[in-house]
Amino acid sequence: MKILTFAASSSQNSINKKLLQFAAKQLQDAEIEYLDINDYEMPIFSEDREKELGQPEAAQRFFKKMGEADALIISFAEHNGSYTAAFKNLFDWTSRIDMKLYQNKPIVMLATSPGPGGARNVLNTAVTSAPYFAGNVVGQLSIAKFYDVFDMETGVINDAGIIEQLSEALSALQGIEEKAEA
Predict the structure, then answer these.
(1) Measured distance CA(10)–CA(38) in Å, rounded
(2) Domain, as residue range, for 112
(3) CATH code of the domain covering residue 47
(4) Using CA atoms, how far apart are residues 156 and 109, in angstroms rounded to an integer?
(5) For residues 109 and 123, what is the distance between their CA atoms, to the nearest angstrom?
(6) Each residue of 85-109: b (16+ CB within 10 Å) or e?
(7) What is the pLDDT of residues 18-37, one digit of tens each?
(8) pLDDT reported for residue 53
(9) Which whole-number Å values give the CA distances from 104 to 119, 131, 164, 180, in the listed order?
(10) Can you give the C-alpha Rg of the chain in angstroms?
């Protein structure tokens, strides 16, 4: 099974990228591709720019990458209670190619933050809106106080309860793989 992963953050030191890397290592026998949304930077979306530019090549590449995957894992950073500007812009451009942006892929949605909210607001927004964009959310997890549960030196979550919750969220992807092989 080919799984496409990306953090919805433009930060090079994103804790959501660290969470994704740890999560992906938990999956057995999966081909993991990590995307950096910085590789898909485009002008700020507007209808005027769309008329002028058409569909940017970066948005087309991003849409194609999602189409080539069997499943997605996305980890959302939260800025002021919502998506990061970088992800929202990428999402807006790509959804103009096809509103069914997620292409009926099974998705595990994660979010984390250093604070007690665990980026719950943005995760709730993403999970709630996914069906409108042909997203099939099969697992989700918000992790609060990331630096308290993640060892930055080893890149490992050190809280057994959170590891169990993460395994449960990811287990739906293992089930999808098993059905595909049957």
Answers:
(1) 6
(2) 2-181
(3) 3.40.50.360
(4) 19
(5) 7
(6) ebbebbbbbbbbeeeebbbebbbbb
(7) 999 999 999 988 999 999 99
(8) 94
(9) 24, 9, 27, 15
(10) 16
